[in-house]
# Entry
Amino acid sequence: MDGANRKWVGTKNGAWLISPEGDKIIYRFTDDNSLLLSNDVKKIAIDGKTGEVFFSTAKGICSFRSTATQGDAENTHVLVFPNPVPPDYNGTIAIKGLVDDAIVKITELDGRLVYQTRSLGGQAIWNGKNYKGGKVSTGVYLVLVSDDTRTQKLVTKIVFISK
# Structure
């Protein structure tokens, strides 16, 4: 089980990440569609702090950096990376060190909402796009974080740099 209460399952046919309710397949890894060394997965271990998932297979050990980490008791040691986001970056942006299931809002400096999500355990993931699917412009954006009771609140910044 990872920080978002999702279940990792290893089989002789690869590895699976199943939703907390058990009704959806989030990921399926095989030696054909991933860097999994063998479809025969013997054991799975998760580093809750980093979200890294380790697969012990018949042909060796490999790992995958997942999207969920264990939630913290407080929003301390929050890290946004990469930050600044370099030109032409197409990966995900991680906001980690959050309380479990935190509400994360990305806004422009004037307060206009760009994106909103919930953390997966203690980490939120953002693709750097707004609700319409467009990449955000060069600039400074606020990351507003709180828990449901609003007792754990935090504001940090993220910078996007275009060419």
About this structure: The mean pLDDT is 92. DSSP finds no helices and 13 strands in the chain. The first strand starts at residue 7 and ends at 11. The CA atoms of residues 94 and 125 lie 5 Å apart.
